[in-house]
Amino acid sequence: MAVDYAVIVLYLAGMLAMGWWGMRRAKSKSDFLVAGRRLGPVMYSGTMAAIVLGGASTIGGVGLGYQYGLSGAWMVFTIGLGLLALSVFFSARIARLKVYTVSEMLDLRYGGSAGIISGVVMWAYTLMLAVTSTIAYATIFDVLFGMDRTLSIVLGGAIVVAYSTLGGMWSITLTDMVQFVVKTIGVLLLLLPIAVIKAGGFAEMKAQLPHDYFAPLGIGGQTVFTYVLIYSFGMLIGQDIWQRVFTARGDKVARLGGTAAGTYCLAYALAGAVIGTAAKVLYPHLGSPDDAFATIVKDALPVGVRGLVLAAALSAVMSTSSGALIACATVANNDIWSRVKGAVALRRRTAAGGAGDGGAEPGTEQAGDGDGAGAHDEVRGNRVFILLMGLAVIVIAIALNNVVEALTLAYNVLVGGLLVPILGGLLWKRGTAAGALASVAVGGLTVVGLMVSLGVLANEPIYYGLITSLVAYVVVSLCTRPTDPAVLDAWRARLAGRADGGGADGDPGAGASSGAAAGAPAAPDDEPEGDTAGAVALALKLPFAARRA
């Protein structure tokens, strides 16, 4: 095991070194939060694949294969389908908006009144995503070193918080690209063929397992449908995913790179299910399906290779954790704290009888994302929020044992409350701010109410939550005044990538919130486009066990 330990230690040290290097790159807010918006296709596709393929997709995907056979691929498969849909139909428009958060997009589209509520929902989702990812360190470090649960969470969480705080998205991009390569080698090129060979090949697997293990819908049709609603649609609206789209150098990179990442996810889904099916042949009586990954790695792989594959599992969790952490901090700072601070400042100026021109509107940012003291202060402010959110995540992860239901609650509220107003804003010009707010409130409350009455893991809450959210959005939008034409003009200009759609990069409110900036010039990104290293993080998305129909 000494060789395996050395591989893991070198990997962790490399993550910290990349965080230090990323700190030297992050000189502006754009650098720190979206890697300067200049990732090329290779780096972009690698980082996007890394963020959506985390602990649930790796350890959980193998567990589902162990429990249900090849149909266990559906969870990760629907993640890939959602990423393909995002990349083909929406990513180019999202990238052109030049914003930092989903809530800033809602401000642009609806005129500055929907951001704070959506920000709170998105913050809760990203926080729980980061917490569940951090808890996974306890399992991995216990397998590796027999380490205490609390110490495992502190160690794993501290490493992620350190490199994320130092370099922001630059550090996360670099580490995620390494993690993508490690996962590809460890899972697809090593563990997959070795597992199949150890199980005697596909013919032997078919001979020893029931027919249902090779049926396309063996997991249950209703379960697949629920996965589509939660995971495929969730890919379209999550802050952690959008923040990666914002890193693309241009429309073509966002579309083609995302398509490549989505296709990779489909292959990864099938690989995990096959590994799990092979593990069922080799170890038919495991206590839990989620033990399949660690068991086959420990028993079937040679020294050195075992360390690399365990590093792949660790990298999957780290990519999820770091992506969720920076998304959580970005939302907390830009969508909640900045708005509250701006509202308080505006109220003070109003009370003092001032003209109100001393600061930015709540939810907006001042133009000028380049170098200088202002840019340095913005980077420092975002760095502080990552540190604070990271410490909060570690504390909650230590205190929380059963996080599956908490994450399911956050994810269902995210999809049930925000899917309709976000897609409606992109696709339906008649949608209004009042309709968006009603959709968030009605959909979110319906999801929460049904989860309380039927159980958190029931399928019905997300079904009825989406239906009521859609009805509220359409009815209230049609019953209220249309969105100000000036706001829609500024919105269309930003979607088209024209410079008259608002303020500088990171100033979405300048055009939409006031409805008066349709002709305001936009400052270009503060650094020239160019290829760099990158990668991303998500994936520990929901329970490892499938919901049976």
Produce a short descriptive summary:
The chain is mainly α and 549 residues long. The chain is 72% helix and 0% strand. It has helices at residues 2-25, 29-34, 41-52, 55-68, 74-96, 102-110, 115-145, 149-198, 201-208, 221-237, 239-245, 251-282, 292-300, 305-351, 373-399, 404-427, 433-454, 460-479, 485-495, 509-512.
Describe the protein's architecture and organization.
This protein is mainly alpha-helical and 549 residues long. It is 72% helix and 0% strand. The chain has 20 helices and no strands. It has helices at residues 2-25, 29-34, 41-52, 55-68, 74-96, 102-110, 115-145, 149-198, 201-208, 221-237, 239-245, 251-282, 292-300, 305-351, 373-399, 404-427, 433-454, 460-479, 485-495, 509-512. The longest helix is centred in the N-terminal third of the chain and has 50 residues, at 149-198. It is globular, with a radius of gyration of 23 Å. Mean pLDDT is 80; it is low at 355-371 and 501-549.
